[in-house]
Write a structure and sequence with these properties.
homodimer, mainly alpha, Annexin V, domain 1, Tetracycline Repressor, domain 2, three-stranded mixed β-sheet, 6 strands, elongated
């Protein structure tokens, strides 16, 4: 009885994964990996192959690890080598070795070839399934060949023309082929102005070029112009989104590759070192405060307003930082305009500093009943916000200029700068004005 | 003499814009708009049209505003209606009116049609240039028609099949057309399993579907299944990158649509309101401190350690926030797993709180010579970091649950929470332990 009910449930799951593999993948991702593996293990491999294409690399790896060899091999054979490379890249050192060993020979070679390209490069995400002919092939023959390949999956938009040395010499889009006379050769109808990219080209740059040029796909070549593969623009979308959002995480010292459901130990390994760095920088700010313990003892209201100055400077600085980081990601900031940018942020700092500084000064005056406290905190806030704006722009730009990743922990550096400057300006001014404050 | 040199320079610029319009656009973007307009104004429109496609919408608008009507019209006629809509969307209320009035009649209508779709929807970025036939058209005739359209730009990958009411009934990719027998009709060779999207579909969701399904383009239909346009995946890349990075900016109250070189007044209008909100929340944190002025007056070292507790909690919280925000953008967080996520972040908060709390406690003990100060600050840091982790996850998730934008100023809310909790825990514990501290 129970068995029958179980069988029925399995057949429902089977049908679900086959009819809507994307939603199926979402459902699987939301389950405990052990439960998910048990369900998929009870189904034939054919039921899950489509669904596997939609899984996050990390989840796919987690499931594959749990499968017996037969199911493992069947699923892996159904995936594209690029997907295997993605899964591989999401594994730990140890996991990689086991994973690679379990791969079928041919896939192993393909995956290793892809992995020889740098992370984030065109080589890593190119498909090696493309259609290429020699230039002396006739249009009629090419069409016949395409017809016989009809059942193989291959990018459907372009056919490539290569010479005897496999060097790319032309490209034909399918529409050109349709409108050509059957007696032409490919060499006469192909387009010879080629746009190609190197397998080492950075994906962000590739994304920019592809999106501006509105190509469906772009051929990847080696330095001798030999055709290695094809990157489809649809494949770039996911990578671009991933990279753009990685940068936010890195700004405050979470790992760029950390996900909402990464293993906890992985998250700790990524975040903890930066939390210690942040702690060290917090003590730097604390030591500024400790220089002024004397006046704080006499005037505890200063301790009350400290978080206001620091918080406001920090927030203003992060606003600038996020805008400059985005400008860098989108390649909108050219070196010629860096001084413009700094001037712009300084000006915004002055205006916002004045406007919020005056407001804060008035509140402090009313709260404490002494106009000079208002003057001190108002002035401190203006200084703090100008420096915040300048630092928010200068920190990522200088990190980039010296070859560092501008995202990596720039948020931590920034808040240290705004804290130190804010505390120093506020408490220093308080010392200067102390005759009027006490 | 001078004139001749000027002419020569202009011809160099002309050649540059024609041969490498993308780099040309970058060069123009880096110039003062008035200088750039002067140079482009001296060239024939044909020299700049290609280059205009590569300009940021905002820069393009700025230049177009400065052009005389003749040049304006010539450039605008060369742009796609989607690009005009993009430019239009980047303008202020007033600029929009003038811009629309100057557009040629036909483009005006097209742009208005596109603008009737919500921002961030498929309708806004679809191209209305597509090829559609009726199902009874023969393959031979279709190929002939395609041949005659050869010089018109149109997405080259798919041909669509619509019935008498313009309802989409099938899709044919160019390869299918090539391998079909010339005597077939389109109705017999078309694929009938259609993947279509509504013109109101959100672009982020569209990007996810397109990238998972690896389509080059997707047809956009109205509720009656009538074909309205086509979205190409290459066009989505830019939008996806833009949207993913918009969210970071909104987290701390900069405008999602602010760019590194937006007009200063625009930036002020976006940032200033949130800086005032941040100020108000900072006073909330300050009022917590003011509740404890008594003990701070007796023990000024507490004021020194305040920024350490607050800074550490704030940073830990932002780490969690960035990871959860990214999970939301990438649609990796399903509602079923929200409790998992909160549990996970609480656990990470406990571990990181313990590890950095013990370190801080020891430093405080050594610094101040009193082990109880170490106990107080260590405990406060653990509490503060657990709450930080929980808030970093709970704030964007609950904003999303009640229908708010989880990005909008979640960073400001978060740092308020971590400040208030951190100050209260630290100073409250100090009061409890005051017998041992003084």
């Amino acid at each position: 009885m129970e068995n029958e009910a179980h069988e029925r449930l399995l057949s429902v799951a089977h049908r679900f994964f086959e009819t809507d593999p994307m939603e199926g993948a979402h459902t699987i991702e939301a389950m405990e990996p052990s439960e998910a593996a048990a369900i998929l293990g009870a189904l034939p491999a054919s039921a899950s192959i489509e669904m596997f294409r939609y899984l996050q690399a990390h989840d796919a790896a987690d499931l594959l690890k749990r499968f017996p060899t037969g199911l493992f091999t069947a699923i892996v054979e159904g995936l594209e080598p690029e997907q295997c490379a993605d899964i591989f890249a999401s594994l730990s050192e140890n996991g990689r070795k086991t994973f690679l060993e379990r791969l079928p020979q041919r896939t192993q070679r393909e995956v290793q070839k892809l992995l020889s390209y740098p992370e984030d490069s065109a080589g890593r995400i190119m498909s090696r399934e493309f259609i290429a002919f020699h230039p002396n092939v006739g249009v009629k023959d090419a069409i016949q060949r395409l017809r016989s390949l009809a059942n193989r999956k291959a990018p459907a938009s372009y056919t490539y023309v290569v010479d005897e040395q496999q060097r790319l010499v032309g490209v034909i889009n399918m529409r050109d082929l349709i409108i050509a006379s059957p007696d032409d050769t490919l060499g006469t109808i192909m387009r010879k102005e080629l746009y190609t990219v190197s397998s080492f080209m950075d994906r962000e740059q590739l994304a920019e070029e592809l999106s501006k040029r509105q190509f469906f796909a772009v051929p990847v070549v080696d330095p001798e112009q030999r055709l290695l593969g094809v990157v489809q623009s649809s494949r770039l979308i996911e990578h671009v989104q991933e990279e753009a959002t990685e940068d936010i995480q890195k700004m405050f010292g979470a790992g760029g590759d950390e996900k909402a459901f990464s293993p906890i130990l992985f998250s700790l390994r990524k975040r903890l070192p930066w939390l210690y760095v942040n702690l060290a920088t917090a003590f730097l700010a604390a030591s500024v405060v400790s220089m002024f313990e004397g006046i704080i003892a006499k005037l505890t209201i200063l301790a009350v307003f400290l978080p206001v100055v620091a918080g406001q400077g920090g927030n203003a600085g992060i606003q600038t930082l996020t805008i400059v980081m985005r400008g860098l990601v989108m390649r909108e900031i050219r070196t010629e305009r860096v001084w413009n940018l700094l001037g712009r942020e300084a000006l915004i700092g002055i205006v916002t500093g004045l406007m919020t500084g005056v407001a804060t000064g008035i509140i402090a005056w009313v709260w404490y009943g002494n106009p000079y406290l208002g003057v001190v905190i108002g002035l401190a806030m203006i200084v703090s916000m100008v420096i915040a704006g300048l630092s928010g722009a200068a920190i990522p730009l200088s990190m980039k200029a010296v070859g560092l990743d501008p995202a990596q922990s720039s948020g931590i550096i920034l808040t240290t700068a705004t804290d130190v400057v804010g505390f120093f300006a506020f408490l220093g001014l308080a010392v200067l004005f102390q005759a009027y404050l006490l």
